[in-house]
Amino acid sequence: MTVNDSQVGATDDRANDPGREGRIPLPDRAQMSPQQQKVYDEVVKGPRGMMVGPLRAVIHSPELADRWQRLGEFVRYRTVLPVDLKELAIIASAKRWNSEVEWGVHARAAKEAGVADRVVDAIRDGNEPHLDESAADVYKFTCQLQMSGEVEDETYRAVLRRWGNRGIVELTALIGYYTMVAMMLNAHRVPLPPGMPSVFEKGGTGARELAVLAPPKLRSATSPPDET
């Protein structure tokens, strides 16, 4: 079935006001195609409880939305990593990409999972957080992968020792998934939920601020070689 713009609400006046509703509106369930309704119902009956964040945009491609929400449910709720460390990796990724919706949702989730307020605030402000050893391993892994596209051997071995092959693969998938989430949120300007404050400066410097946590020996492909 082909879904035209009128069926999914793309011609609604809200679509002309990206600052209020984002660039792509979330259609009402009654306006959705049967495929969209099926995904919508699975999401609201699952652990999320509502259509939130990137799914507001992704629902316009129902097959993608179905696969997206299943991957998201797995990496957030079913991996071997402790909840607090998963949320730590997520907020670091949100900071990297200046994704306010991702940050707002997961900063709260991180605190509920036991991540200290001072740690969340340090990451938000671009400062190095004080972490215990297991949290530091996850945080370094996340920052190195986000900033350079690779992970130092020492950092890799530390995560591997703690959580094995399954854990390190799932951590990598978690970071990749929430990078994709940030891209979807940012590209389509998905709005902050009601009552959620804006925390990042528009066009801000999340990547540069997070870079202070990446080891200096990890250099980008465009970095000049060290002088000898």
TrEMBL record:
Pfam families: CMD (PF02627). This is Carboxymuconolactone decarboxylase family protein. Residues 11-23 have a biased composition (Basic and acidic residues). Coiled coil: none annotated. Residues 62-125 form the Carboxymuconolactone decarboxylase-like domain. It comes from the Bacteria. InterPro entries: AhpD-like, CMD-like. PANTHER family: 4-CARBOXYMUCONOLACTONE DECARBOXYLASE FAMILY PROTEIN (AFU_ORTHOLOGUE AFUA_6G11590). One of its GO terms (molecular function) is peroxiredoxin activity. Residues 1-37 are annotated as: Disordered.
